[in-house]
Amino acid sequence: MKILFNSNNSKISLFNNFFKIFKFNDKDYSKTFFLIASLFLLWGFSMGLIDVLNKHFQEYLHLSKTESGFIQSFYYMGYFLMALPAGYIARNFGYKKGIVLGLFLVAIGSIIVPVANAFLSFLICLFIIAAGFSALETVANPYTTLLGAREFSAARINLAQSCNAIGQILGPFIGGRIILSATKNIASNDHTVVYIPYIGIAIIVILLMVIFWNVHIPEFSIMNNNEQHNGIKEPPLFHNWHFNFAIVAQLLYLIAQTGICSFFINYVVNDLECSSREASVYLSIGGFGLFFVGRIIGSFILRQLKPYKVLTIFAILNSLLMLYVMFSKLVLGSIALICSFFFMSIMFPTIFALGIYGINKHLEKASSFIVMTLIGGAFTPIMGYVADITNIKFAFVIPLCCFTVISLYGLLWKKLIRGQS
Length: 421
Description:
Helix content: over 70%
CATH superfamily: MFS general substrate transporter like domains
Order of helices and strands: HEEHHHHHHHHHHHHHHHHH
Number of helices: 18
Strand order of the largest sheet: 1-2
CATH topology: Growth Hormone, Chain: A
Structural class: mainly alpha
CATH architecture: Up-down Bundle
Radius of gyration: 21 Å
Number of strands: 2
Largest sheet: 2 strands, antiparallel
Number of domains: 1
């Protein structure tokens, strides 16, 4: 009985310790956190779907890897252009209205996908959807860092991004089964396989709009303003060197991640001599499965170790994996590529948390600029061009260079904090 009693106490203690990260000044923000986390799942699914569409249009419209890369270009251009307006709305009208605006744009873009009867019109729909998700990310990422004690902000944003990883598992898995399985047999005027997933997104988003419009979302602008007057004058935004370098690091991370995801199927098809549909399963279950596991494990690691140290170690390991992807033979390159997802998992949320660390007065603006770095996904055609003129393996030199610079950010972060003017 004593052993059982101690075991139960241990479970209760673990449970209470977990929810400790959502408490601040005797207030529990866990319910709000998990509601916000549902948004992360949604845009993760959409991003995962994009990686399938890249391969689909290569085969369906006989596009080169360079040309298919423009799917990512249009998508992330929407993120780039909407980030600053979304930050302005959150700062002046509140987080709740910023979320509702984002959901509205996603719903509109998804609803008009079925009438997109040309490649360009489909790209415009993706642009509108991405603009909506940009608004959601601009609001939700910094908002999760406020839902509890400051020392757990990196752990909270990584936990929320775990839901994003679930969406990225479901995106290529469902997209591969619906879209890639029918790509070669699709009639030239039949777009059903492409728009089915977006009809589902539209229905879910409309339901979320109703929910968010009718629930209470705490606003933190007052709390942030109070923190400005504790005797410490906050420097202008771009005098924070850890923030400036975070923009560079996040941009490079997005270039690396988008490139890896976009050409994962091409690499695996070439390396394992399998079908595109089979490769999409490796991407969803293998790649994004490890991505999800990495974020769950990472949220616990970040409660024990300094975030900048974890970022440094993970970026160095991914640099080594990219070298292996470039020069390996047989199936080992595909295994290394899948493993890279584990070490990518904590990078976006950790860079985000490190970048906005100590920034209160300019939080929404800082968030906008970091979300704008998703324009890195628009550089996918460059990696496609390298693959076209050399080979798919050598194209991974681009993620290699990106991860190397990210590791440098982690190494220098503490000095950047101390040296800011």
